[in-house]
Amino acid sequence: MRRVAIRAAAVCVLAAFGLAMGAAAPATSGKTKPQLRDNGLRDEIVTRLARSKSADDHFQIHVQGTSVTISGKTDVVQHKASATRMAKSAGALTVVNKIEVSAAGKAKSTAGLRRAGLQHRSEAAARSERTEKR
Hints:
Layout: H1 2-24, H2 38-50, E1 60-64, E2 67-74, H3 77-90, E3 94-101, H4 103-115, H5 121-133
Helix pairs in contact: 2-3
């Protein structure tokens, strides 16, 4: 019985200590960078894109809270992925990437894979079908 009372007292002390510490320090989300919202987040993303190689693509940025939608067109496949990474590193929690890569950009990327000895998934599937027919 005495042990139960001691444990209950210890739990109460720890709970009170935890509440006191929580009241003294504001809760953080674990991120070192403060959350930007709407215009501040949009300005940060636009600045990052302007300093990058994808500045000539002139992507459109729409921000609502901490959600970002990026749209536009590019001739370089890598610019699509880098735009998403820049938005996330600027503070966006969710990014919807609606950037379209041109046919010429896709062909150029696929040609680079061929030179490297790699192949696109559709080419690999077609090749395996041809070998199965033999």
